[in-house]
Amino acid sequence: MHRTPMYIWRMETPKTPLSINYRIREGLARMAMVARVDEWTKAKASGLNPTQMAILSLLEGRETALGIKDIAAHIGVSQPTATDSVLSLEKKGLVVKRPGLADKRAVSIVLTDDGLAALNHEGGDLGERAVGSLEVLEQEELLLALIKMIRHLQEENAIPPQRMCVTCRFFRPFAHSGSEQPHHCNFVDAAFGQRALRVDCREHEQADPTSRAATWEAFQAG
Questions:
Q1: What residues are paired with 96 via a beta bridge?
Q2: Residue 62 lies in a domain
Q3: Which end of the chain is more exposed for a tag (fewer CB within 10 A), N or C?
Q4: What does the DSSP assignment read for 104-122?
Q5: pLDDT tens digit string along 32-58?
Q6: Does residue 123 sit within a domain?
């Protein structure tokens, strides 16, 4: 009986590594996979899915409510997906809809007390344990690198504005140069160090483009 030959293809590791940009992106993709596992674990504890949990996390601590379009942009899903997820959360009593301030025909989504309680379930800390394996200085350097990357994406309009210290009108970088707490926050009128830089601050107010650029230049120079 004639047998069709079987060929086994083996991909060999290139002798010359791919670009470092590509390899770092590979590493970030692996960490993103761990983040998704964490999100599923936390969401499951609350009887939700990751998209619904992401919406609750996004709404937490925001003085102004968000519309469906803003929610979809921030968590990276389509507007129909955001609409369906918000509807499910509304049925569970975790969010409520309110008329928009500027346009009464639009709706804004607000977190309820039950929605806030759903965020307090523990679990899904693989990512934090991985960060905890780094030395103190390595953690700080990683935080600074991530802030720089996120800011770049924001300035490219690839992602919505993020509530980071470096883009806030209250941030004064290296106002206390030479100190262990070199930066100053005008909102709370207090100094703070590099490790305290925030990626998402509830009191954040976006600086205008000119001030934002000047602040970033001073931050980089410091």
A1: 110
A2: yes
A3: N
A4: TTSEEEEE-HHHHHHTT--
A5: 999 999 999 989 888 999 999 999 999
A6: no
